[in-house]
Write a structure and sequence with these properties.
about 270 residues; six-stranded parallel β-sheet; three-stranded antiparallel β-sheet; about 35% helix
Length: about 270
C-alpha cells in the first residue's frame, strides 16, 4: 500500500461503521485505537495503520485536540466507549499522557501501548518528566504561537517547532521531502497541555507495552526507559527518532500485535 493511500486511511474521526467494516477482524480480536501526539495529526499513523489493516485488524485513529490532558482524554474515552469491543489503546508522544487517563473509567481497554510516549504517574505533568532529565535538542526548536480562541477575547498560547529545525529534532531518520511536509503541516499544542496533571494512571491496572526510540531528540530516551520501567511495561527498544511510527512502523506494529495477541490469551 502506498504512503498516500495510508495517509487517507489514518485521517479523520472514525464512526461505528468503520469499527465493523471490511478491515475489521472478528469480535474475538481487539480493535486498535491510535492516539497521535504533539506537532502532528492522525495521519502520522499512516504506515502503522496500513500494516495493521494488512494483518486484518480493526484500526481507529481519532483526532487528539492537543489542548489539555483531561479534556483530550475525555475525547478519546468517548471514542473507546463507543466501540463495543476490546481495545488496545496506543499513544505516541503527548498521546501517551492522554491514553493514560483515557483508559480509566472504561471496561474494554485490554492493553496500553506507548510509542516514545509520556506514561505519567498520578499528579505528574509532561513538563515534570521533561525537566527531570537532560534537555533534549527540541528545547532550542520551540516557538510560541497563538491558538484559535475558545472564548472570545481570551487567546490561548501554544507551541510549535521551527520548520527549519523540525527535521533534525523530530524526524531525522525520514527523507527530507517527507519531513518538509510534516514541518509545514504540524499542529501546535496548547501550553496548558504540558502542565495539566494526571489522575490515577491506567497503567497501574492495565498491561502495558513501551517502544523506546533510542535516537529520539524530542523525548530523552532515558526518560522513556524510566517511564517504561516504572509502569513495568514490556519494553521494545527501537532504533528510531521521535517519528519512529513513520520510520519504523514494522517495529511499532510488532509491539501492538504482541499486546493484542496477549490480551486474547485465556
Amino acid at each position: 500500500m502506498r504512503r498516500r493511500d495510508r495517509m487517507r486511511l489514518a485521517e479523520g474521526s472514525p464512526n461505528r461503521s468503520e469499527v465493523t467494516g471490511m478491515h475489521g477482524p472478528s469480535h474475538a480480536s481487539p480493535a486498535v485505537v491510535l492516539v497521535h501526539g504533539a506537532f502532528t495529526d492522525a495521519s502520522s499513523w499512516a504506515e502503522v495503520t496500513g500494516l495493521l489493516h494488512d494483518d486484518g485488524r480493526t484500526v481507529l485513529a481519532p483526532a487528539n485536540p492537543l489542548r489539555d490532558p483531561a479534556q483530550d482524554a475525555a475525547r478519546i474515552r468517548s471514542v473507546v466507549r463507543g466501540i463495543g469491543v476490546p481495545v488496545v489503546l496506543v499513544g505516541h508522544g503527548y498521546g501517551g499522557a492522554v491514553i493514560t487517563q483515557a483508559a480509566t473509567g472504561t471496561d474494554n481497554v485490554v492493553a496500553l501501548c506507548y510509542v516514545a510516549a509520556f506514561g505519567l504517574d498520578s499528579g505528574e505533568c509532561v513538563l515534570d518528566v521533561v525537566n527531570r532529565f537532560a534537555p533534549a535538542p527540541v528545547a532550542g526548536a520551540i516557538v510560541t504561537t497563538d491558538l484559535p480562541a475558545r472564548t472570545p477575547g481570551r487567546p490561548e498560547r501554544g507551541i510549535r517547532l521551527r520548520e527549519d529545525l523540525f527535521p533534525q529534532v523530530y524526524a531525522a531518520d525520514l527523507p527530507p521531502d517527507v519531513t518538509a511536509v510534516l514541518a509545514t503541516a504540524q499542529r501546535p499544542i496548547a501550553c496548558r497541555a504540558l502542565t495539566g496533571r494526571t489522575g490515577s494512571p491506567a497503567w497501574t491496572s492495565t498491561p502495558s507495552w513501551y517502544a523506546i526510540a533510542t535516537a529520539d531528540r524530542m523525548l530523552n530516551p532515558t526518560a522513556q526507559r524510566f517511564m517504561a520501567q516504572r509502569m513495568a511495561a514490556a519494553e521494545h527498544v527501537v532504533d528510531g527518532s521521535h517519528a519512529v511510527l513513520l520510520s519504523r512502523p514494522d517495529a511499532v506494529v510488532a509491539m501492538i500485535l504482541e499486546a493484542a495477541e496477549w490480551s486474547r490469551c485465556p
